Amino acid sequence: GAGVSQSPSNKVTEKGKDVELRCDPISGHTALYWYRQRLGQGLEFLIYFQGNSAPDKSGLPSDRFSAERTGESVSTLTIQRTQQEDSAVYLCASSLSLPPQYFGPGTRLTVL
Amino acid sequence: GENVEQHPSTLSVQEGDSAVIKCTYSDSASNYFPWYKQELGKRPQLIIDIRSNVGEKKDQRIAVTLNKTAKHFSLHITETQPEDSAVYFCAASLLGSSNTGKLIFGQGTTLQVKP
Q: Closest Cα to residue A4, out of A111, A108, A107, A102?
């Protein structure tokens, strides 16, 4: 079946602009995660959604970052007033209620 | 919170040799430890995982060992091949009904297998 998909694959924006990243999880996967991967670094947890439960936002680095998910479908990660340090690959992963997590291809964000 | 340290950061081996990557974690409650392989420009892909009730797991040329007392786990790749060249990430997680299962990753190991 189809894997996790993300769009856009690449996004170049100017400092101060808002960006919206999209994630389509594997059908039937109730859990959805967002991670950030800076160049040459490991992945950092950002936010977690599980069904209709309250999301775990403990990894969001600042109030400029927010995410939404409707039910068990698409999720969007929004970064407001982007800064150069936001440049990274943003990865989405989904899973059933138990692991493993399956990753999407990521969105490479470049803030000029 | 959980912290995962991974060593070495780079590893170069000759084709056919073995490669070992080591990780330590800080939270003794962590109970799930996956390993991901990431080729350049590609998504991370799970290669093997282990839960805390198991000390070792093998899948063909790949094995993972876990020492809960030392809070240490390792990836072993035998008979390495050029296509094993990639960045490998370890991670730790706490699974359970009231936990998110979020993964805390190590910094990655770049493995180069020389033909």
A: A102
Q: Which residues touch A14 (CB under 8 Å, ≥6 apart)?
A: A82, A111, A112
* Contact call for A45 and B46, based on CB within 8 A: no
| Burial per residue of B3-29, b for 16 or more beta-carbon CB atoms within 10 angstroms, e otherwise | ebebeeeebebeeeeebbbbbbbeeee
Q: Is A86 helix (H, G, I), strand (E, B) or coil?
A: helix
Kindly report the CA angle at A90 between B28 and A110, in degrees rounded to 5? 135
The answer to whether A20 faces chain B, any CB pair under 8 Å, is no
Q: What is the pLDDT of residues B34-50, one digit of tens each?
A: 999 999 989 999 999 99
Q: Do B101 and A102 touch (CB under 8 A)?
A: no
Q: B34 and A100: CB-CB below 8 Å?
A: yes
Residue A35 exposed, middle or buried by CB count within 10 Å (0-12, 13-18, 19+): buried
Residue range A46-72: average pLDDT? 92
Question: Could you say which residues from 50 to 69 on chain A have a Cβ atom under 8 Å away from some Cβ of chain B?
Answer: 50, 56, 59
CA gap B107, A40 in Å, rounded: 8
Q: Two tokens at B82?
A: 């050029």
pLDDT tens column, A74-106: 999 999 999 999 999 999 999 998 889 999 999
The answer to whether residue B10 scores a pLDDT higher than 70 is: yes
